[in-house]
Amino acid sequence: MSFPVPAAASLIQVGQSGTIERFTNESLAGKLLDIGVRPGSRLRVIRKSPFGGSWYVKIDRQCLALRKKELACIMVK
Amino acid sequence: MHHGQIKATPVVGLVGNPNSGKSSLFNVLTGLRQRIGNFPGVTVEKKAGMLKLPGLPTVELVDFPGAYSCYPTSLDERLVVQELTNPEGELFPDAILYVADITKLDKHLLLFTQLRDLDLPMILVLNMADLMDSDGLTVDIPRLSKKLGVPVVPVSSRDHRGIGELKEVIAGLLREPDAFRPRQPFYEPGANARDVLAELRRELPARNDYHALLLTHHAPWLKHIPETTRHHIQEARVRHGFHSLRAQVEETMDRYNSFEPIVRDTVRHAGDTDSLSDRIDNVVTHPIAGPILFIVLMLLLFQALFAWASVPMDLIEWTFGTLGDTVRQTLPAGWFTDLLVDGIIAGLGGVLVFVPQIAILFFFIAILEEVGYLARAAYMFDSLMQRFGLNGRSVVALVSGHACAIPAIMSTRTIANWKERLLTILVTPLTSCSARIPVYVILISFAVPQVAYLNGLISLQGLAFAGLYFLGIAGAMLSALVFKWILNTPERSFLMLELPQYRVPVWRNVGTTVWQKSKTFVVEAGKIIMIISIVLWAASTYGPPADMAAANQLAGERAQEQGLSEDETADLVASERLEASYAGHLGKFIEPVIKPLGYDWKIGIALLTSFAAREVFVGTMATIYSIGSTDDEFRIRERLAEERNPVTNEPVYNPATAWSLLIFYVFAMMCMSTLAVTRRETNSWKWPVVQFVFMTAIAYVSAMAVYQLLT
């Protein structure tokens, strides 16, 4: 799925993906960049955690667990 | 440092991202010649080992904590920046082995380029080179080495390939540290940073521009920056509108742009390599199957713990019992023999008997960690944990806490949020650690009848056992909830957790962990238990002379009155003497406080002595009830069953007292070592005091409630 206008990654449905365009929160951006999440990477939401609140996400070939707040600062298209 | 001269003990730092396989490589390079201590001034565990290289003095290899970049968020990461930006420091390395996962070079080179720009002699070690054949991965090593300007060595800590070559390259670099100096930096500070740097460059103790930039960023917390300099840096930052976060993001983006083409040019992946890992995760992290699997795994773990540990434990008990008997028969009777048998041998046996369980528990936890499962558990339970004010990563501590609270508390360093970390530290000791096991084993037989259902498949005592564990977990979670309401910090909390690919564990790593943790337990806990055993022996053998004489006389008279046999007389004398001893006086002194809980003065002695280490309880009981072999649980049990209240002549160990004691031991903070670790990890006396008071209060109140309800 691709978004015509950049949207927060927290809006992506499970099983769908987008390309990271930018971040909307500087302090989270610093940390996300450090662990290898960066503009141009392919982001796919794999599944929701058992008790909600966080997601199993695949960024390029790397698996990460991100909270809703963390996903929300990633803009994808 | 670039003097071409080799120091007496060159320091080589092992640096890399978390999950890069750094520790495996460390184990391969140093074997068991490792020393575990703390980094100076901080509580981060420092692993150092000796590395022998031909024609060089012995090299000290320091395993730095895993870090993603020079912009730290956790304590572990801060330490890396602290030490690598301090050329005057003791741990400043003469060379760095930078470990990167060969399959994740596009991410793991970020920190590499940062350290490289600090002008440190480096070797890039590509770990997990065993994947080069199986996964259709190819890396153009000479080209990568040329582009990055450092020696590149592919190694595998699994099949040991490349280790010999790596040692040669390390030796070469130490002999000629200037051989690979960077020709140009990977990153040039942007306009914004240049102004600040121009002003500060001369004042800062920096080796180059990038070093100065990092000092500017991190001056507020770097320990080696003098207070006046810190002040100047702050002023300059404000004057030039230096925005640390923005500068960091700019720099990181710039760095990715500079090394990404190099990686693309030299590394080829064939297809999607982690499909197997994905398929495993479809089940393991499944919203419903995942948590069920977790619970099943934990149940299996504890089942195995009891099933497997009993044989070696019996063996150890038997050995020490026999040893004690032999010594008693061989040596002449007297105070020295008593001290040796009742104090030292009994104390030593009391320590070693826990080793099988501790080893098995660490074996399991090390495997779960190595395989990559613990990260999944953290992911699954994050939001549940958050409701209690904890972090997904707290699961790791709460699981390991069932082995021993000390390493569990140390594992909380990966939690970046201070409040979440503090709550985890405070409540982890409520999980039932292995030192509670012997106390549970002895007391449960008095609390619960030996009844089994379904052909012995489920025993009532086993259920009670599981219930105590559950009670500990529930206590931990509820206390966390209370602390969550009391404490308030606006600090941000992160999950952002890497879920590494599943891997077959490297057995050497598992073995090393088990060996080291068991050794630490024997040495650290052993010291305390030994001292207490000896002190206790002395306190229960000696007393105010007048009282002791009176006790002897009284016992003698009574024995004659009742016409007791020699053995019975000896028992009577012993018990009268105990009551008159210093320990007896102390027990009597606290008796009023513990009476509402259903305890007499003898239990009081055991409680007092086990406040330093709860595993002392069984040993104390044995000493008090004067049984030759201290740790034979069944003999102690028989003796306890015979114990009667002198006034009412009813058994002292009735179900109410037994339950009350069990509940007390579930909740009470009875471990000096844990308090010491809490003190170290929180860097204040406040939190160990809080921990001690709240746990003991819960223990006292709930034990009293249980006793009053049951009688």
Tell me what you see in this structure.
The complex is a heterodimer of chains A (77) and B (711). Chain A has a single domain, classed as SH3 type barrels (Roll). Chain A is built from 2 helices and 6 strands. In chain A, a hairpin with a 2-residue loop joins strand 4 and strand 5. The model of chain A has no long low-confidence stretch (mean pLDDT 90). Chain B is of the alpha/beta class. Among the domains of chain B are: 165 residues, P-loop containing nucleotide triphosphate hydrolases (Rossmann fold, 3-Layer(aba) Sandwich); 190 residues, no CATH class. Chain B is 61% helix and 7% strand. Chain B contains 30 helices and 12 strands. In chain B, strand 2 and strand 3 form a beta hairpin. Chain B is elongated. At the A-B interface, helix 1, strand 3 and strand 5 of A face helix 3, helix 10, helix 15 and strand 12 of B. Chain A: InterPro entries: Fe-transptr_FeoA-like, FeoA, FeoA_core_dom, Transcriptional_repressor_C. Chain A: This is Fe2+ transport system protein FeoA. Chain A: GO terms for molecular function: transition metal ion binding. Chain A: Keywords: Iron.
Element layout with pairings:
The complex is a heterodimer of chains A (77) and B (711).
Chain A lengths: L6 E2 L8 E7 L2 H9 L7 E7 L5 E6 L2 E6 H5 L1 E3 L1
Antiparallel strand pairs in A: 1-6, 2-3, 2-6, 3-4, 4-5
Chain B lengths: L10 E6 L5 H9 L3 E5 L6 E7 L7 E5 L11 H10 L10 E7 L3 H12 L5 E6 L3 H4 L3 E2 L1 H8 L3 E3 L8 H13 L15 H10 L8 H10 L8 H13 L4 H23 E2 L6 H10 L4 H42 L4 H18 L2 H17 L1 H15 L6 H7 L4 H6 L7 H10 L9 H11 L4 E2 L4 E2 H27 L10 E2 L8 H35 L3 H18 L3 H15 L1 H13 L6 H9 L6 H9 L8 H10 L12 H13 L4 H11 L3 H25 L1
Helix pairs in contact in B: 3-10, 5-10, 7-8, 12-13, 12-14, 13-21, 13-26, 14-21, 18-20, 19-27, 19-28, 20-28, 21-26, 22-23, 24-25, 25-26, 28-30, 29-30
Pfam families (chain A): FeoA (PF04023)
Keywords (chain A): Iron
Protein name (chain A): Fe2+ transport system protein FeoA
